[in-house]
Amino acid sequence: MATSSAIGELIKKSGISICAAFLCAISMNLFLVPAHVYAAGINGAAQLISDILFDRVHLHLSIGLLVLILNLPIAVLGWYRVGKSFTLFSFITVMLTSFFLTVLPVHPLSSDILLNSIFGGLISAVGVGVALKYGISTGGLDIIAIFLTRRNRNASSGKYFLILNGIIIIIAGAVYEWQYALYTLISRFVNSYVIDMIHTKYQKLTVLTITDQAERLTEAIQDQFDRGMTIIPSYGGYTGTKKSTVMMVISHYELYKMERLIKAIDPNAFTNILETNKIIGTFHTEEQQMAIQAMKHGEHSQKMEQTLGAQDYERFQKLFNPSTAK
């Protein structure tokens, strides 16, 4: 049963990756590229590089190929510094986007640059938003922003998205006409707004789950996420039935997996998901969670200690295996 469920989940995520990549490619080849309006992130960088190479040195490199080339070093960074499962599906989506950009013709549906900006941003946002809703990234700046945020925990991913996309817009305006930069800003606004409607603009989310299966749910979450939780004794307002409220903070990339886990443990649980502006305290990354999982099973290494930090490493060593603690 578990294997069948895992296969079903893999098929679902693969289908979502294909749809997201196809929509991103459609938005570029039918709307943004013909209008010289630039997409977000690495796709926009590839589009800009392709235009500059063709206009300045008459060298034609397809945008699809450049998307793949630019994402290769980012995929390596993500694999070792962000998380393997997250990076894997991100790169699958990148490869599919590169494929669709190459095989689909560049064919403008409208000569109106404003319409192209709006619909290009909207269509790509649907693909990106749906992918994020199912715990998949479209790669590129997502991985870079997460990595930079982990190095500087006082900054948000949104700040890095703004800086990296701003560089693309400024270069486009300086090299070409500034009107293209302004229309790119319009496209980015539409893109961000629609993604927020489909998924969430917040990087951290607070999950409050009211359940009578708190012990089972806590064990399952610790087994799959290693997220810290607070258990609050509760009771039903109408019935007076004793329950527990499980409170935790997760990243928005973990939301889909967390929703499925809660539903599997207690289909009758009531869950409230709140947007979190800021957290103060420990919040483990996926890489740190993997190290903690390994320590649970008796594995210990210098790399784990470097990943968690000496203090956290010693704390979890005492927690999981007090007899061997320093």
From TrEMBL:
Pfam families membership: DUF2179, YitT_membrane
Localisation: Cell membrane
Recorded topology in the membrane: Multi-pass membrane protein
Domain DUF2179: from-to ranges: 227-281
Source organism (scientific name): Sporolactobacillus kofuensis
Family annotation (InterPro entries): DUF2179 (IPR019264), N-reg_PII/ATP_PRibTrfase_C (IPR015867), UPF0750_membrane (IPR051461), YitT (IPR003740)
Stretches that traverse the bilayer: 20-39, 59-79, 86-106, 118-148, 160-178
Name of this chain's protein: YitT family protein
Gene3D superfamilies, per the entry: 3.30.70.120
Record keywords: Cell membrane, Membrane, Transmembrane, Transmembrane helix
